[in-house]
């Protein structure tokens, strides 16, 4: 498979994730500026999740630019990452709707941890395929 297809698919999934997150935000009941105050947890958690998803999208882009080819293992590692990223709208919504209650916030943190582990798996898989002297391995350095 060409890496461009993987990039396009991942870009599409990430765009849908961001769209779902913004659609989960409801408008305030009133029409005054003060009515927005009650939505601060929703907005705060949306901003945090948007930034996290944006960081993964940006890093994924750079990772794919440094990748000459992909394998079946790369496809599965990428799907693993997209799976955990796709849960962010759910964990974000639960956290903000409960005003950052303990269990939802812990689940959100675990979701972010799973995303980071999945990204590391993808990065490690790509470096393993390219070799320890590849440009990507050198760029990542001892972080693998």
Average predicted local confidence, pLDDT: 92
Report the helical percentage: over 70%
Count of DSSP E strands? 0
Structural class: mainly alpha
Instruction: Determine Rg (CA atoms, Å).
Output: 18 Å
Dominant shape: elongated
- pLDDT < 50 runs, ≥5 residues: none
Number of domains: 1
Q: Proportion of β residues?
A: under 5%
How many helices? The count is: 6
N- and C-termini, Cα separation: 25 Å
Biggest sheet features: none
Helix and strand pattern: HHHHHH
Please supply descriptive tags for the structure shown above:
single chain, 144 residues, mainly alpha, 74% helix, elongated
Describe the 3D structure:
The protein is built from six helices and no strands. Helix 2 (40-65) packs antiparallel against helix 4 and helix 4 runs antiparallel to helix 5 (102-130). With 144 residues, the protein is mainly α. The chain has one domain (3-143).
